[in-house]
Amino acid sequence: MSAPTQTSARTDDGTPGTSGPNGGEARLLPDAGGHFDAFGGRFVPEALFAALDQLDREFTAAMTDPDFAAELRGLLTDYTGRPSPITEVRRFAERAGGARIVLKREDLNHTGSHKINNVLGQALLTRRMGKTRVIAETGAGQHGVATATAAALFGLECRVYMGKVDTERQALNVARMQLLGAEVIAVESGTQTLKDAMNEAMRDWVASVDTTHYLIGTVAGPAPFPKVVREFQRVISTEARAQLLDRYGRLPDAVAACVGGGSNALGIFADFVPDDGVALWGFEAGGDGLETGRHAATISAGEIGVLHGMRTYVLQDEDGQTKESHSISAGLDYPGVGPEHSWLAATGRAHYEPVTDAEAMDAFRLLAETEGIIPAIESAHALAGALRLGRRLTAESPDADPLILVSLSGRGDKDVDTAMAWFADLDGRADTLDSAANPDPTAPEVEPGEPDAGVGADPVGSGSGEIQR
Amino acid sequence: MSTAAPDPRAFDPGISGRVLAAARAEGRGALVGYLPVGYPDVENSLRAVRALTGEGERPGVDLVEVGMPYSDPVMDGVTIQKAGTRALERGVRTADVFRAVEAVTATGTAAVVMIYWNLVERYGAERFARDLASAGGAGLITPDLTPDEADDWLAASEAHHLDRIFLVSPSSTDQRLAATVESCRGWIYATSVMGVTGTRTQSSTLAPSLVARVRAHAPDALVGVGLGVSNGAQAAEINRYADAAIVGSALVQTLVDADEAGRPDDLAGLRAVVADLAAGVRTPAAGGPTPASAATSTPDPAGAPAPATHTPVTAGTPGS
């Protein structure tokens, strides 16, 4: 296990010295073809190459255009409400073995998640390219809501593709998109979830590329999307790094985020990548548990393949057909992952572990009842992971005083129905309503699937031997 | 063919390109017919691909394009998606492609395979090429693999003397179009419209200029035109300016109709469409539109698209 070694070598040096907050290394990749070494690239119909090249050119030009930067900065400040605050959650952290936990509050952004950061950037690019229509895929609906919001703000026509299953479990966000003037298409092909919404958006784009920008919501898909979305989400770590240095005078020992496609995770990782003393942890959706096969833990349990235009880890069968993923969280229910995560995993710079539905929902309720914050179920995976990390770090180094930064990527309003159903079911099985809710720091941990003994203890390292080209 | 610009190297027609050239030598364009292996089931799909060829009894397609169903077919419209999804549910495997290729080549007709790249990569590009060559297959059409990412396939196709048919699009830049043509062997797949597979009533206005752009770069290149071709009249029209017309969804639709009518082994609809198409490409080029094809009962849902795989969510009833 390299992680404890890394995290124990804490960096207290707060100066943005060698790499700098927007520092160098992370910007070296991808290469001109969109590759993160063996990952990424472009596996799409020829028809889309012209549009992808155009996007890459406009993005490159925009990133060196002071007017673009100023306009985006203005939107992020005056419309989104950035910078988002950081919040230390002391009562919640009582379950973390003595580690301190600080949340980066992307849930407080306008529209309720980190998705708006990327959407505003790409909406500006859409206008720059002279296109008048945006399409998007969405899982939990957060990216769809953000896209519908930006479309309203910029006067763009907007269509959002959403798996039919997801329109049912995230009905609130469907209504929000419609109120914002977007057309929501319930996709009934395939597994009727996020991957099929992406397929359908891609088909639309092939036919409409002259007037339409496909506003991908995560760090996935063909190049240059993984790079574009990472750069528009980088603001999360740029802010958080400065906020931690300002408040605590040090960098965190670990950064934790949930990973579906992986945009909030790359956003909060990006500026910490050059900080070798900061461990980066991505928590994937473990669903019912890896051993059941019902999960969405792509890096932990997938194999390298090609999906949605990129080479990356994919949940696939013996023939290379994509397997159905499972998660209580619609936003993490995806059988692929952004190629830069695959690269970070393969290089060992970041670590990935699964968090089960049950662990995530325990953390969901714990945060709500101890801190007055209802997280998105997606973000609850990161919270559960942070509790696990804290216990692990303090068990390994009893004198340590670890500081863990968690990306609270979204708020949980959209999840109230799912959560109430989950807890009604859970509380029907356990007999006392409060036993699971009230944290008792003296109580032994009883959560099933405790990672140190289970599959979670052997994360991406096991897959890295298979990296090949 | 005379041209002012000297052609640096002759286009290599490989195996399947010679089929297109042979049709041209007869004074007509070729007909390429697509069907997925495994639909309605593997055994019936083997009968269906043989039926495409006419089986020596009647005119059929000149070249069969055997499709391999894939879980995420982003270049395919609803008809081929539906057939592919059912084929996968009914257990089709990648290796069944080679059985379908053998079934076609046993009739004396050439076959190429249309397949999404992850399936080849998973099987192993080298191993796939070897097994395809052993089955008598001519090469691959790769809808989501361009020469940019094709190093493994270029090597494997070289080693096993297989054709590699990449796609060009109306949106392709001249630079990309040139690079793609130079990477192709056999022929070039020109997508006639910006869109995915499926039948369309309108003829493409983009296809003639796309074919002309290919020829401007490589005067002896062989070009097939696909997407939206559904009847004999359209095929004949395409073959006035291209070397082959590629038909897929209109053929698959006949199998869907038979399957949904509870007669998965009924190939009568398929044979009727093949007959219309085969007659279409044999219509003398000087003539106008072929009246015969208009009278056929070709299923052509383009005017009233079949129910899509998705529906708008109506306001007021979110998620209900």
TrEMBL record, chain A:
Cofactor: pyridoxal 5'-phosphate
Cellular component, GO annotation: cytoplasm
Pathway: Amino-acid biosynthesis; L-tryptophan biosynthesis; L-tryptophan from chorismate: step 5/5
Catalytic activity: (1S,2R)-1-C-(indol-3-yl)glycerol 3-phosphate + L-serine = D-glyceraldehyde 3-phosphate + L-tryptophan + H2O
Top-level lineage group: Bacteria
Ranges of residues in domain Tryptophan synthase beta chain-like PALP: 81-396
EC number annotated for this UniProt entry: 4.2.1.20
N6-(pyridoxal phosphate)lysine modified-residue sites: 115
EC class of the enzyme, as a word: lyase
GO terms of molecular function: tryptophan synthase activity
Keywords: Amino-acid biosynthesis, Aromatic amino acid biosynthesis, Lyase, Pyridoxal phosphate, Tryptophan biosynthesis
Described function: The beta subunit is responsible for the synthesis of L-tryptophan from indole and L-serine.
Xref: PANTHER family: TRYPTOPHAN SYNTHASE (PTHR48077:SF3), TRYPTOPHAN SYNTHASE-RELATED (PTHR48077)
Membership in a protein family: Belongs to the TrpB family.
Record text on subunit structure and interactions: Tetramer of two alpha and two beta chains.
Entries under NCBIfam families matching the protein: trpB
Descriptive protein name: Tryptophan synthase beta chain
Organism whose genome encodes this protein: Microlunatus kandeliicorticis
Gene from which the chain derives: trpB
From TrEMBL, chain B:
Highest taxon above the source species: Bacteria
Matches recorded under Pfam families: Trp_syntA (PF00290)
Active site: 65 (proton acceptor), 76 (proton acceptor)
EC number(s) recorded for this UniProt protein: 4.2.1.20
GO cellular component: cytosol
A single MF term (Gene Ontology): tryptophan synthase activity
Pathway: Amino-acid biosynthesis; L-tryptophan biosynthesis; L-tryptophan from chorismate: step 5/5
SUPFAM superfamilies: Ribulose-phoshate binding barrel
InterPro entries: Aldolase_TIM, RibuloseP-bd_barrel, Trp_synthase_alpha_AS, Trp_synthase_suA
PROSITE patterns: TRP_SYNTHASE_ALPHA
Record key words, sorted: Amino-acid biosynthesis, Aromatic amino acid biosynthesis, Lyase, Tryptophan biosynthesis
Disordered: annotated segments: 282-320
Catalysis: reaction(s): (1S,2R)-1-C-(indol-3-yl)glycerol 3-phosphate + L-serine = D-glyceraldehyde 3-phosphate + L-tryptophan + H2O
Protein family (similarity comment): Belongs to the TrpA family.
Assembly with partners or alone: Tetramer of two alpha and two beta chains.
Protein's job: The alpha subunit is responsible for the aldol cleavage of indoleglycerol phosphate to indole and glyceraldehyde 3-phosphate.
Family matches, as HAMAP family: Trp_synth_alpha
Protein name listed in UniProt: Tryptophan synthase alpha chain
